[in-house]
Specification:
The radius of gyration is 21 Å and the shape is globular. Helix 7 packs across helix 14, helix 12 packs across helix 14 and helix 15 packs antiparallel against helix 16. It is mainly α. It folds into 2 domains: about 200 residues, MFS general substrate transporter like domains (Growth Hormone, Chain: A), CATH 1.20.1250.20; about 200 residues, MFS general substrate transporter like domains (Growth Hormone, Chain: A, Up-down Bundle). The longest helix is centred in the first third of the chain and has 41 residues.
Amino acid sequence: MNFQYHMNVQKGGKLFTFFCLYIAQSIPMSFFSTVLPVIMRQQNFSLELIAMLQFLKLPWILKFLWSPFIDRTSTRLNHYKRWIFSSEMIYAAIILTVSFLDFQVTPLLIIGLIFCSFIASATQDIATDALAVISFSRKNKSMVNSMQSMGSFGGAMIGGGLLLLIYNRLGWETLLPFLALFTVISIIPLIFFKERHIEEPIPEKKIEKIHPNDLLGFFKQKGIWKQIAFLFLYYMGLIGILAMVKPMLVDYGYNMKEIGVMSGVIGSSIGCVASLGAGFIVRQIGRNTSRILFACLTLVTTVYFYCLVTFLPVNIATLHLGITLLWASYGMSTIIVYTTAMDCVRKGYEGTDFTIQTVITHLSSMIIAVLSGKIAGSFGYDTLFQVEIGIAALSLIYIVIIFREKSILNVAKEID
């Protein structure tokens, strides 16, 4: 019993370490992504210029380009630690530097520094993901992905909600030093992470020059296009609704505070809890059953939103039910996406292959988010939700047919 207790404590400590690493990168990003458009609009910057802030997210889209370098240079646990510690310290140093600057005086310098901080954050994410892949056995990978998703949702809730309120009281120069200190404190648990905590052996590899196959080799694997199509489709039934739910609430007469509570606080909290629950569900019933179950929930969510704008009464109760379904579906979907992505990485290319797969989901999300605005603007929310129902149904049918006889584990075995 003492041995089992020790193992549970050790596993809990590992999960806590990765939760800290993921939330450390998420909170500052969410804060800057939320506060910069507000500050710029208050200072009468044009909407066109504010829209250009979307380019701040480019490092997270392009991070696959330098992920092979991290994989190539990481042959021991200390190498992964070095990447994470150095990236996070640079992240914190830039945040601290920005606190001494005035946005009215040096807006371009501040935006440039924040862009550099996002590069550091993306680099930390590559190394953290790679370490997560080798640190947990196949059985426990869903749990570390719960930590990743909870870190993202928790970071969005704190960075995009709570810190915005604190910023209004304390100001830029007072808040940011504490934010920099938080990023440093969050990586302290990694100091106590040892070789014995790694459940899969670190692949032996020679440190060589980067080769095109470091990236292209992922797409040459047998059976991998089934996974790629799955990644491309799985979020699409939700992202269009997520992109348009706030404008829809505005059109129904809700103010900024009410929308912030419903979507920012309640929605993110539900996503965080759903992510944790999904980790246990995947661990208990397996990848394929979970994939189908979560896809069914996504379909139910799209149908509900269509009903909401066509014949159901739109009030606090019906909107909260819709937001609960939406964020619960999204939180659960992230776990099965991340877990199956970890199953499909090549030995020695954990950071590269996981990053490529997350970038695929980012690109599909960007496409449907842009299209959702055009569809809703031209044809109405009901038409948008009908399209989302079709995509969700297509995703479910694809999963049932393609993965009917062959689990993702078998696909992953074929890849090697």
